[in-house]
Automatic annotation (TrEMBL):
NCBIfam families (alphabetical): flgA_cterm
PANTHER family recorded: FLAGELLA BASAL BODY P-RING FORMATION PROTEIN FLGA (PTHR36307)
Name of the protein in question: Flagellar basal body P-ring formation chaperone FlgA
This protein's UniProt keywords: Cell projection, Cilium, Flagellum, Membrane, Transmembrane, Transmembrane helix
Organism field: Candidatus Nitronereus thalassa
Occurrences of domain Flagella basal body P-ring formation protein FlgA SAF (ranges): 134-256
Residues annotated as transmembrane: 12-30
InterPro entries hit by this protein: Flagellar_FlgA, SAF_FlgA
Domain of life, per lineage: Bacteria
Pfam families linked to this entry: ChapFlgA
Amino acid sequence: MSQTKDGGYMDWLKSGVLMVLVFALPLVTWSEVRPPIQVATNVPPTQEVTPKQLQSTLEQQLREQFPMNNVDFSVDILFPKQPILVPKGRVGIEIPPDTMNGRTGRRSIRGAIHVDSQYEQMVNLVADISAHTKVVVPVRFIKAHEVVKPEDINMMDVALPALQHEYLDDVDMAIGKKTMRLLSPNLPIQKPYLTSPPVIHKGDRVVLEVRQGALLVQAVGIAKDSGEPGKTIAVENQQSGREVLGKVVNSGLVEVLF
């Protein structure tokens, strides 16, 4: 009886092993004969456009657009930090003219990349633009309508808010000029803040001059206004008593206007 049971158990075990072999071997065989994955080999060759190239192009464009005499100027590309992949060919980077007077600080700027003169892609830059230069500043409060003296001003290095500005960068541009407003110490003097002082004062005797082709006529007059060169003032002709308008030429000379 025991032998019959053992024999039946062995038959069951053999049948189980046979079933495993029958169903598993095809799977193993199938997995071994699967074709290999094909790797694409027709990817076109590429090249990199680096942040350094973008920086150089932006610097060149700004230098050509804005005069930068005696200006310490720099551009730092904050984005993109990684190179941009483009097809092989002659690369051109186009950045349009700046429309914000060359404002410094962090700026978002849009440009375009071309390959062999064909548009390839748009690129959005984030750049930090900085500029420093020496400008003329007062060393004291200077009231409006005062004439600036050499001891009133000095030179100071400042950060420029924009590459296009009206700060004075030469003391000779300020000395002898009349202020149009109160000037505060250590704040840059701008061109509109100054004007030439009057060379003719109200009540001065002046020469009235009339030019018409080769004809020159002169008369003596009394200035009714004060004025600097180029300003139009009223002058009374002493001989006729008539009041005429004339342009100040220099000290004591007024050209009559028609």
